[in-house]
Amino acid sequence: MQALLEQHIKEALNSLHQVNLENVEFQATRKEFEGDVTVVIFPMLRQVKTNPVALGEAIGSYLVENVDVVERFNVVKGFLNLVINDTFFLQQFKEIKDDAHFGFVKSTEESPSIMVEYSSPNTNKPLHLGHVRNNLLGYAVAEILKAAGNTVFKTQIINDRGIHICKSMLAWQKYGNGETPQTTGLKGDKLVGNYYVKFDQEYKAQVAELQKHGKTEDDAKVEAPLLLEAKKMLLQWEAGDEEVVSLWKKMNQWVYDGFEITYKNLGVDFDKNYYESDTYLLGKEVVQEGLEKDVFFKKEDGSVWIDLTEEGLDEKIVLRSDGTAVYMTQDIGTAIQRVKDYAINGLVYTVGNEQDYHFKVLFLILKKLGYEWANHLYHLSYGMVDLPSGKMKSREGTVVDADELMQEMTKTAQTISEDLGKLEGYTQDEKEELYETIGLGALKYYILKVDPRKRILFNPEESVDFQGNTGPFIQYTYARIQSILRKANFDYGQDVVDYTLDPKEKEVMKQLQLFPEVIQQAATQHSPALIANYTYDLVKEFNSFYQNVSILGTDVEIEKVFRVQLAKTVAQTLKNAFGLLGIQVPERM
RNA sequence: GGUUGCAUAGCUCAGUUGGAUAGAGCACCUGCCUUCUAAGCAGGCGGUCCCAGGUUCGAAUCCUGGUGCAAUCACCA
């Protein structure tokens, strides 16, 4: 449509002023003026020396005369507002309503293939609010990339080895008395997490004790027997000590069982899991190759580094002097492995912004190693979720637990639903499912609607809203439309061609038309927030229509048909958009 | 100290090719359920777009400098 107008505007300028216009600037017409599309005249003044209002009038007249879809126009200052006729809108709408996945681009053989990494938990503690943001973002971005026409694989790398795991293991061995998830009734990840906290408590006590006996704080921290034991355990693990490895396997399995439940409740999934215990040695070979290619250099003590001073960064270590791998080594190896496994040409890492530097370096290294795909790596960096009391720390138990949070939200949804009492006829199971849909909808929307880069301050005391710009508000609109559709017991399948649009109807249609563009934008910017805010705008327009225009109450048959179609299309779009965010929509609420 | 990100109404946030009088929600105040679900709609109140310069016909948006907050700059992951 803009392309069509652009062409005619260029023609207009050519015939009026003998000027070849390079570009035409459009924007949506502001509500307070009449019109559907606005042409900004100002930029043209560079090429045509004249009064903007006069030029606008001239172009407007030309368009009305020569272009069918332009019905009228008005000029305000340098803005040419065009009124597009109803026939055009109705034609567009026909395409939207008949397309169950309007706005989605199907991926093909030639589509870019992208892997999205998210979640990537440690196996020594349960998931908390920070992971929730990570999971929601990663999942949503994966879905959005898919909808924008990419082939997408979802993955996580499970951080299942290292000193932190040994801490939980050791504490369980020492103080656990053989407790298991079965004997305690605790979720496995919770049980293991408790021992991580336990370790920290005992460790701190030992440090304090040592300090009492004259040690400095730094010495005490290094010499505490518990820490020494944990380190020893890590060495035993690396050496393949049978007892340690079997304990490790047992406790990790507990954690995986726990995670599975959390993921399921959260509604996220993965196509492939990578385990750090498998990949942590992967990068070493590559480092060797890099040494030969002089991408890396070796210091006298044997450690291997890369010099990034030319790029304005520092030197960075990629292999320890004892030959063992660091975080970076592993990430280099894992990236290469993934490209081999899936023939992908891009990777999205959903990781908090505290690791901005790490990923900057990682991407640079891969580029220097000469991998073409290194140009398509993206760090989806998001702000931390902080509590009013400050940062969340698992060790100190000051976290908002993911499972408890979801439960809390579901409970709140239940309370509100029961107060409103609109669910007569629903079975207990149906009700519970609905509470979950609404509670999680509120939580997910709350987190996803803000720009990923911004940090979120989460106050558990003030519950997440269920009114206004929230998930439930949008779900409610969907449910209301479903209610209308249940009552619309007549055939509304025919195409509406000859019809005069109500202004409210037109606004809703304009909003619907934006969806494909919003998906593409959300994909390029890796921002689910754009989808969330789009659904809100759409719902606002629809509700205004709903409250001001009767859908089923009109006597005019064609009005009824068209309005039901419009409502249905809005519902469909909402469902699809929320699907991208991993949020479900209810039939009633 | 260097680097990166953020700063918009009392609070939470939109505002992305630079455009018209900077928009929503929450909170507070009005009105609207004998008609399709009031988790809604219509309206009111509320602004030094962190500050100072610059570019431009035009700046919340771009540039420079500063202030504040956060993260980061490990042979931890």
From TrEMBL:
The UniProt GO MF terms for this protein read: arginine-tRNA ligase activity
Keyword Ligase applies: yes
Q: Which family does it belong to?
A: Belongs to the class-I aminoacyl-tRNA synthetase family.
**Domain DALR anticodon binding positions:** 474-589
Q: What is its main location?
A: cytoplasm
What is this protein called in UniProt?
Answer: Arginine--tRNA ligase
Its domain of life?
Bacteria
Q: Which SMART domains match?
A: Arg_tRNA_synt_N, DALR_1
Annotated Arginyl tRNA synthetase N-terminal domain ranges read 3-84
> Cross-referenced Pfam families, in alphabetical order?
Arg_tRNA_synt_N, DALR_1, tRNA-synt_1d
Q: Which UniProt keywords apply?
A: Aminoacyl-tRNA synthetase, ATP-binding, Cytoplasm, Ligase, Nucleotide-binding, Protein biosynthesis
Q: Where in the cell is it found?
A: Cytoplasm
UniProt motif 'HIGH' region: location: 121-131
What reaction does this enzyme carry out catalytically? tRNA(Arg) + L-arginine + ATP = L-arginyl-tRNA(Arg) + AMP + diphosphate
Question: InterPro entries annotated for this entry?
Answer: aa-tRNA-synth_I_CS, Arg-tRNA-ligase, Arg-tRNA-synth_N, Arg-tRNA-synth_N_sf, ArgRS_core, DALR_anticod-bd, Rossmann-like_a/b/a_fold, tRNAsynth_Ia_anticodon-bd
Q: How does it assemble?
A: Monomer.
Q: What is its EC number?
A: 6.1.1.19
Has keyword Magnesium? no
